[in-house]
Amino acid sequence: MNPGTFYAVGLGPGDEELLTLKAVRLLQQTTYIYVPFSRLTTQFWVHEAVQQYANQSAVIREVSFSLQRSKKEREKHWQATATSIIQTLQQGNDVVFVTLGDPLLYSTAIYLLRALRRQWSEVAVEIVPGVSAYSHCAALTYFAVGEGTKPVTIIPAITAMEDIRAAIQRGGTMVLMKIGLHLPAIIDLLEENGLIDQAVFVSRAGFPEQRIETDLRSLRGADPTCGNLAIILLDTEENAL
Predict the structure, then answer these.
(1) Helix (H/G/I), strand (E/B), else coil: 162
(2) Given phi > 0 = left and psi -120 to 50 = alpha, else beta, which region is 172?
(3) pLDDT tens across 193-215, in order?
(4) Domains and CATH numbers, the chain
């Protein structure tokens, strides 16, 4: 019996029309589909997209995010998930693991892939890229992410503010992801550097509750959850189309 293939499939940012044809085909053809979820980050759309395209005989298995503070405990969690998937693959079944956005950009798929290869180095893997959330945000706001020789920096806002300051000093275009509760501090930093008018904010791109702000001052005093699934695009020069 030939073992199956593990597919890490990006479903895009939240607009159902931005799924790739390949993602849809794999959801329709694959029996075993793993869907990540977390009690802190509600990603109902991912589950709904799977339900919409999966065939009626598909076995859909939920995989919880590991929220342990200990790196060792988080790795233990992903190793246990990998063990389950490997058993399914070795029975000759393909497996699809879906993820919001792209599988290789701040995705849970990265941790699972590492865990799989630790246990079975010869596992057959195929990555199916998805439209990244920041690409969708740029399209919604007419923001040119890369132009000429201008560098582009993608940085998670959960890092130290000093790292964001350093990126601003280097210049170019910045994509701030994983904003969460750091939104007020980022707004202050942009004001301090005279850059707030050169930034755009998009939260939950592609979802019904999508929010776009071209004046980030309007976000002062916003609900603390406003930064969830949000991205800020910033040009340290001028960016107008």
Answers:
(1) helix
(2) left
(3) 999 999 999 998 888 889 999 99
(4) 6-128 (3.40.1010.10), 133-235 (3.30.950.10)
The DSSP letter of residue 224 is G
- Please give the average per-residue pLDDT across 156-184, as a whole number: 90
SS3 of residue 95 by DSSP: strand
Find how far residue 133's CA is from the centre of its chain: 7
- 142: its two tokens: 């007419």
Exposed, middle or buried: residue 207 (CB in 10 Å: 0-12, 13-18, 19+)? middle
17-71 pLDDT, tens digit per residue, is 999 999 999 999 999 999 987 655 555 778 888 889 999 999 999 887 765 567 7
Instruction: Look up residue 26 and give its two tokens.
Output: 């794999």
* Nearest alpha-carbon partner for 8 in 86, 81, 93, 109: 109
Q: How far apart are CA 207 and CA 138, in angstroms?
A: 15
For position 219, what pLDDT does the model report? Answer: 94
